[in-house]
Specification:
By secondary structure, the protein is α+β, with helices and mostly antiparallel strands. The protein has helices at 2-25, 31-43, 50-56, 59-89, 96-114, 117-132, and strands at 138-147, 150-157, 178-185, 188-191, 204-210. A hairpin with a 2-residue loop joins strand 1 (138-147) and strand 2. Helix 1 packs across helix 2 and helix 2 (31-43) crosses helix 4 (59-89).
């Protein structure tokens, strides 16, 4: 029974870690950095890095990391309580079958990671997310001004980004702390558009926000 509980706990920990790292990567964070920050949050280890600052200053990332920290601390408390109970009640050595199960699960997880199973899973989830959030099809046409981490940029809306009834809200700019100041459309300008303002192919968005959260510049 104790061995089964340990296996379930380890699997749940991995699931939370995977979900957290995928969620962070979905906000535009680099995959390696996303996994590092997820591991840092769930284990309660703090690192003073520029990536940590990008998490704190990003509303959506901050929520994700907050949940990872809560779940990580809950797991630690549960482990401590379980350990105390085992000491009081007493435990037994695992049988050969249970040892074989543990080794089998460990080997399976190792092969899953070695053959890029985690990467493939992440790519599959992110592709599904990008179908409903077409930020990847935006391109920074020009960066007009930058003061520190913040700047004003002109962003092009490519044809691939357009889905039926697409509005500014669909791009998730609010979650990335980016404000759309205006929409340029065929010689006309829509100033301070609302979240429900329709977006058309060929539009240009004049945005203000954190430069690192802006779409990649046009090459």
């Amino acid at each position: 029974m104790e061995v089964i509980a340990m296996i379930i706990g380890a699997v749940l920990w991995l699931v939370v870690f995977c979900a957290g790292s995928i969620a962070l990567e979905g906000t535009g964070m680099d995959r390696t950095k996303a996994r590092f920050q997820a591991l840092s949050a769930i284990t309660g280890t703090g690192f003073t890095t520029s990536e940590a600052e990008s998490v704190v200053n990003h509303p959506r990332r901050r929520r994700i990391v907050t949940w990872l920290m809560l779940l990580g601390n809950t797991a630690v408390i549960a482990f401590a309580i379980g350990l105390i109970v085992l000491i009081i009640v007493g435990t037994r050595l695992p049988t050969s079958v249970e040892i074989g199960i543990i080794i089998g699960i460990a080997v399976t997880i190792g092969l899953f990671i070695k053959f890029r199973g985690f990467d493939k899973l992440t790519d599959t989830v992110l592709k599904k997310l990008h179908k409903t959030r077409p930020v990847s099809h935006l391109v920074t046409e020009e960066l007009f001004h930058q003061a520190g981490r913040y700047g004003v940029a002109r962003i092009q809306v490519k044809d691939e980004a357009i889905v039926p009834d697409l509005t500014l809200k669909g791009f998730g700019f609010a979650e990335q702390d980016i404000m759309v100041l205006a929409i340029e459309r065929e010689g006309t300008v829509i100033s301070l558009p609302g979240a429900e303002e329709p977006v058309l192919a060929g539009d240009y968005l004049l945005c203000y926000g954190t430069v690192c959260e802006m779409p990649k510049p046009k090459q």
